[in-house]
Amino acid sequence: MIDYEHPTTTQPQGWHCPYCNWRIRLTWRRYFTEPGARKTCLHCGKQSRMNKTRSGKLWAIRVVSQVLCGAPLGIAGFFFFGPASGLGAFVLGALIGGIPIDRYMDERYRQLEPLDD
Ligand SMILES: [Zn+2]
């Protein structure tokens, strides 16, 4: 349960429980194991979820980053190993370029909202 931090931490960004304002930090493990999933607050035990707010500018930056990372790998893969490998390499590069930005956007621009059960 080291994913949860006390709300008095100095780091300004991050998520806060919509019920009790407890700070919830997005870790890499959490990013991969709970993509878009409900988050359970350790402090009050209530569930919340990410809202769907997205920044258009950051979305564009992410796409550019994905192409910049994916295209060289894809082209290299295409020339050295053929079309199928080129496509695979492009997808791999796009993931490498897109995931860090995607995570950053999640933590900075999306907020947790109450879950109505
Ligand atoms: Zn809470």
Brief characterization of the structure:
By secondary structure, this protein is mainly alpha-helical. Helix content is 50%, strand content 11%.
Structural write-up:
The protein is mostly helical. The protein folds into 2 domains: 1-50, no CATH class; 54-110, no CATH class. The chain is built from 3 helices and 5 strands; from the N terminus they run E-E-H-E-E-H-H-E. The chain has helices at residues 28-33, 56-81, 83-109; strands spanning 15-16, 23-24, 39-40, 47-50, 112-114. A 3-stranded antiparallel beta sheet has the order 3-4-5, with no helix packed on it. The protein has a two-stranded antiparallel sheet with strand order 1-2. Helix 2 packs antiparallel against helix 3. The protein binds zinc ion. Zinc ion is lined by residues 17, 19-20, 22, 41, 43-44, 46.
Which tags fit this structure?
117 residues; two-stranded antiparallel sheet; 3 helices; 50% helix; 11% strand; binds zinc ion
Low-confidence stretches: 7-11
Bound small molecules, by name, code or SMILES, are: zinc ion
Mean pLDDT: 79
What share of residues is helical? 40-55%
Q: Enumerate how many helices there are, as a single number.
A: 3
Largest sheet features: 3 strands, antiparallel
Give the class from helix and strand content and strand pairing: mainly alpha
Q: Based on CA inertia axes, which overall geometry fits?
A: elongated
Number of strands: 5
Strand percentage lies at: 5-15%
- Described by its quaternary structure, the protein is single chain
Distance between the termini: 24 Å
What is the count of distinct domains? 2
> What is the N-to-C succession of helices and strands?
EEHEEHHE
Gyration radius from CA atoms, angstroms: 18 Å
Major sheet: arrangement of strands: 3-4-5
